[in-house]
Amino acid sequence: MKIGLYFGSFNPIHIGHMVIANHIAEHSNLDEVWFVVTPHNPFKEKKTLLDNHHRLEMVYLATKDYQKLQPCNIEFNLPQPNYTVDTLVYLQEKYPNKEFSLIMGEDNLKSFHKWKNYDVILENHFVYVYPRISENKIETRFDGHKKIIHIDAPIMQLSSSFIRKSIAANKNIQPMIPEHVWKYMDDMNFYR
Questions:
Q1: CA distance 140 to 40
Q2: Where on the phi/psi map is residue 144: left (φ > 0), alpha (ψ -120 to 50), or beta?
Q3: Which stretches of 27-156 are DSSP H helices?
Q4: Which domains does the chain have, with CATH numbers?
């Protein structure tokens, strides 16, 4: 089984995340996409980051009606700070029958060579890259790399920080959030 790992704080998860993940699940050779909720880094200031379990719950609510999209809390139990390469090693040991790939935006590919052991990641895993809006083509040292697969996914110009700011400013952003997630956020009075 081929699993794509879509890492993020998902603070909150929104329709942009859902559109990209679902598109990749439906239009690539991956069987599932797992939303890997990254835990709060103890060395960083918390600011507006909701607790891990609330963000995981929102991902669960967003994905519960989608068979190919799954929430994943695997990093909650790993030592912090954690690196993607360590998560991949842990997942491969825990699920030896699954093949894991990374999913990232084109903008992240630009700095991928700065990641810890990025070469080990590319040796053992594929990286699925979705487009981002930029002034011109995003050049990277990985152009033409056999382990990097560019997916022609819809370009989503929506961010969790925009949603948090809009909620704080008392704007209606309900169409940008999956329905079950919106209800949960509203009931919990998040980001106000």
A1: 29
A2: left
A3: 52-63, 84-94, 106-110, 118-124
A4: 2-188 (3.40.50.620)
Burial class of 170 by CB neighbour count within 10 A (0 to 12, 13 to 18, 19+) = exposed
Please say whether the beta carbons of 8 and 17 come within 8 A: yes
- Asked whether residue 57 carries a pLDDT value surpassing 90, the answer given is yes
pLDDT band at 120 (very low <50, low <70, confident <90, very high): very high
Residue 70 has φ and ψ, to the nearest 5°, of -135, 140
Unique residue bearing structure tokens 């699940």: 25
Rounded mean pLDDT, 18-45: 90
What local confidence, expressed as pLDDT, does residue 136 receive? 56
- Give dist(CA 70, CA 80) in Å, integer: 23
Distance, in Å, from the CA atom of 96 to the CA atom of 51, rounded to the nearest integer, reads 30
